[in-house]
């Protein structure tokens, strides 16, 4: 059976966690394929908010198997906190949570290296979540990393020590003021590792292969967004993994010809956390309203998110790179009350009008060209049927579908599972 993918099409925080949670009842297996605890997937149901960082968003459904794939990087300390929270909430995760032996482990010194690297960059910093993501993927591609499967070997602590020593020398090399107590950090790390080892470690690509053969339905859950992809994002202001569809192939071992639907999630406007170009960013009252109404603060770091109008040039690019088959528009409710809405349909790029995403979208090269549309006043948050949506919102949706040539199948009108309109 083909594997469906669910991906963010912007700079992350599109609302992937909510949609995975809504769709989970249709799938046997939910699998994360990249990223790590830099992600914050928020789910709201029964009046409670839950934030997951590494654990797939199907964990609250008793019947779903949740797989952390080989493309993911795991911090045992943060993972333990997530598991402890699940226990508090009465979730019996042991039978439903599987970990790939090939996933890489984030060490305490990876986090320190992240901080040292960012500090040394000064104003040019990436705005990393400082969870050690970049340094861990660097060790993966540099062939030095420690994988989950290593934790089952007797000599893994020797390997750990050698790598941590090397990291300490690298931190010294940065010559920045980073205060840390490695003994303390290691104590919580080893505690986290012990708890991780109580879970089921598997050869996940074989598991995924057999599951497909047995006609099990699988949803691959992406983290971050396409514009943060290491290859296709706004480099160097990106994360260190492939967040796009191809990442699901390498991050789970899915053959490209076994990909089914590709669900592309986007917000009705645009947000970004951290540094980097953002052509439609607003610095006025409209941006402030989006941030306030949309409660735009990072689920992982609490940092305020930058807000702006929908950028169709960037969205079209993300749809192309991912082969999106269905779109899901989030946070439509946040746009209620705007007299006029703007959508960026082209860029003025060095004096020329272009409709594709160029190599460089820094402010000095690119300015957005907007189409204006009428807004709507109605509060959408209690709506549950497509027939209830205001005319101006339907016109907004029709416009996007026509421009993107992909149907918008879900319109989300609030954070709760129930605030989801299927079209
Ligand atoms: P890192 O992946 O933590 O190194 O962060 C690199 C860039 O990606 C920074 O701009 C972060 O703010 C951004 N980023 C990483 N993870 C997420 C996410 O889950 N949502 C939104 N932005 C993210």
UniProtKB/TrEMBL annotation:
The entry's keywords: Cytoplasm, GTP-binding, Ligase, Magnesium, Metal-binding, Nucleotide-binding, Purine biosynthesis
Pathway: Purine metabolism; AMP biosynthesis via de novo pathway; AMP from IMP: step 1/2
Record-listed GTP binding positions: 12-18, 40-42, 305, 331-333, 412-414
GO molecular function term, any single one: magnesium ion binding
Active site: 13, 41, 140
Binding positions (IMP): 13-16, 38-41, 129, 143, 224, 239, 303
Localization in the cell: Cytoplasm
One GO BP: IMP metabolic process
Subunit description: Homodimer.
Role of this protein: Plays an important role in the de novo pathway of purine nucleotide biosynthesis. Catalyzes the first committed step in the biosynthesis of AMP from IMP.
Coiled-coil segments: none
Cofactor: Mg(2+)
Protein name in UniProt: Adenylosuccinate synthetase
UniProt-annotated binding residues for substrate: 299-305
UniProt binding sites for Mg(2+): 13, 40
Cofactor binding mode and count: Binds 1 Mg(2+) ion per subunit.
Catalytic activity reported: IMP + L-aspartate + GTP = N(6)-(1,2-dicarboxyethyl)-AMP + GDP + phosphate + 2 H(+)
Predominant cellular place of this UniProt entry's protein: cytoplasm
Gene Ontology cellular component terms for the protein in this record: cytoplasm
Homology family: Belongs to the adenylosuccinate synthetase family.
Source taxon at top rank: Bacteria
Pfam family, one: Adenylsucc_synt
E.C. number: 6.3.4.4
């Amino acid at each position: 059976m083909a594997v469906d993918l669910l991906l963010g099409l912007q700079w992350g925080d599109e609302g992937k966690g909510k949609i995975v949670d809504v769709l989970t009842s249709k799938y046997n297996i939910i699998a994360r394929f990249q990223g790590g605890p830099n992600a914050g997937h928020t789910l709201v149901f029964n009046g409670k908010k839950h934030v997951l960082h590494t654990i797939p968003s199907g964990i609250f459904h008793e019947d779903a198997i949740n797989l952390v794939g080989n493309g993911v990087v795991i911090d045992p300390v943060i993972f333990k906190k997530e598991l402890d929270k699940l226990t508090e909430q009465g979730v019996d995760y042991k039978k439903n949570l599987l970990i790939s032996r090939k996933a890489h482990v984030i060490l305490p010194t990876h986090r320190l290296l992240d901080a040292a690297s960012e500090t040394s960059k000064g104003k040019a910093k990436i705005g990393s979540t400082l969870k050690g993501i970049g340094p861990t993927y660097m060790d993966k591609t540099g062939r030095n990393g420690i994988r989950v499967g290593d934790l089952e070997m007797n000599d893994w602590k020797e390997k750990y020590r050698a790598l941590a020593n090397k990291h300490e020398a690298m931190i010294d090399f940065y010559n920045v003021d980073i205060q840390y107590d490695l003994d303390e950090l290691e104590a919580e790390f080893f505690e986290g590792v012990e708890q991780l080892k109580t879970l089921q470690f598997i050869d996940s690509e074989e598991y995924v292969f057999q599951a497909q053969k047995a006609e099990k339905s699988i949803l691959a859950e992406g983290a971050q967004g396409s514009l943060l992809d290491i290859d296709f994002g706004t480099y160097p202001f990106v994360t260190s993994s492939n967040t796009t569809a191809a990442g699901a192939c390498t991050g789970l071992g899915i053959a490209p010809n076994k990909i089914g639907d590709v669900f592309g999630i986007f917000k009705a406007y645009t947000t970004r956390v951290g540094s980097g170009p953002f052509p439609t960013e607003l610095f006025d009252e409209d941006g402030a309203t989006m941030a306030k109404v949309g409660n735009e603060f990072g689920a992982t770091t609490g940092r305020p998110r930058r807000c702006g109008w929908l950028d169709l040039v960037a969205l079209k690019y993300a749809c192309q790179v991912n082969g999106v088959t269905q779109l899901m528009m989030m946070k439509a409710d946040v746009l209620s009350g705007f007299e006029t809405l703007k959508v960026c349909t082209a860029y003025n790029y060095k004096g020329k009008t272009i409709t594709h995403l160029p190599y460089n979208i820094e402010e000095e090269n690119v300015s957005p060209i907007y189409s204006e549309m009428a807004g709507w006043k109605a509060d959408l948050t209690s709506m549950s049927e497509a027939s209830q949506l205001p005319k101006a919102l339907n016109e907004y949706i029709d416009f996007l579908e026509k421009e993107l040539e992909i149907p918008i199948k879900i319109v989300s009108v609030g954070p709760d599972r129930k605030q989801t309109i299927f079209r």
